[in-house]
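2024-03-11 09:14:02 INFO queue: dequeued item SWIM zinc finger domain-containing protein, len=458
2024-03-11 09:14:02 INFO validating residues
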Amino acid sequence: MTRSVQALAYARPSALESSQVGASLGLETAGGLTPRGAEAHPRFFAGFLSAPRIAARGLLAVADVAAARYYQRTLAASLDPVVTGNGDRLRFESFSGCCGVYARLDVLQDGLEGKRTGHGTTNVDVNNPLRDALSRITADDPLHLRVGPEELAVTTLDGPVVEKKVPLPDRWLRGFAEAQVASAGFDLRAELSAAQAVAFLRSLPRGSGNAARGAQWVVASGSALRPTTRPVPGAVCLPGPERLVALQRVLRHATALRVYGPPVADGAPVASAWEVVLPGMRLTLTLSPDASRGFSGEGGVLEALATDGAAADAELVSVLLAWEPTIEPATLAERSGLSVERVRAALTRLGTAGRVGYDLADAAYFHRELPYDADRAERHNPRLVAARELAGAGAVSLDGPLAYVASGDRRYQVRESDGVLTCTCQWWADYRGKRGPCKHALAVTMVRRGATVAGGVR
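2024-03-11 09:14:37 INFO prediction written
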């Protein structure tokens, strides 16, 4: 796994402090992007939380996922959560170390006592002493939240900093992109009341004993969820149910549970999302199709990365994002002069740089700016790199709807039918397109669309 190291520099550790006027939660920020450009310690919010205890538990749930590995648990994982200010909400996001669980806590304007937030994205320090302090909040006494430095200290932060050096696997960046692509194809499958949500989630295993049993399925039955032995229409895949354990943090405060998933065509496992609705907040966990299978290998973004047109469209669309909490492709299409289909491809490409996410409750994209090199996911995606090498080496021969790709000492046939490419390689035989196109199909796509590749296009 390719890794780099990201240095997160904080002015001081985040802390929960008490005083005569009440408690104050100070979340310190590292370098991030705002409408004013890059800032060392951006400030996004200062005000009271409407439900302090719930917000504390929700933040702990996001931190739980950032520190967890649900597969190969012996390896350590820790990445400080990302926070985005979108004007009307704060979004706290994290990914598990194994790249199989994506978590997001949306603290909406009602949860912020109606106050607006700033705009931008950065990491926030969630250290062990802070976690201990948050876990001791048992009442909804007034709690002041500050995301970013004290107002009087904003211009005087030239002194010593607290620096964390965090290993940053390239799989995590690809995971953020793939989770967004998968979520955009989900529909609401079930909504449970608070009591039903608690009963269902508490019935799930907490250990890892069921991880090897394969995909499990549930289906809405009246106003509840029941297990089903096969993926009937409307069913939702529950891959590795123990991976929902972080939701236990907020269960007693839940007002509803919403379950999302894609249309099910066969028995193959698919991703799903589980959203706990809270007063003024939402906590969502999105699960990869298998506990041993991270989002990074799903391949949903490869088509968008395989053309130069999507790159140019993404550059145009990016200047129109404006840190909006909800991004509608139709609106962007009107403002950019592109088709809705091209806007969606551009948003997918922007997602590979961490610049957009997808909110299931709003059924809309949102703008954020993760601290990644925009071309990093493309450079380190093995299938995409291999496809560019094949196309650049002249390994692709076109013959109407057929194409032939010479790879090593073998020659593969790629056929197009109704806009879908199939291949005679082992990857296609194993996955039938369920994990994105193989390198041969990608190379054919590049050549057909005239993408720029190393060595030119033949």
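2024-03-11 09:14:37 INFO annotate: The longest strand covers residues 3-10.
2024-03-11 09:14:38 INFO item closed
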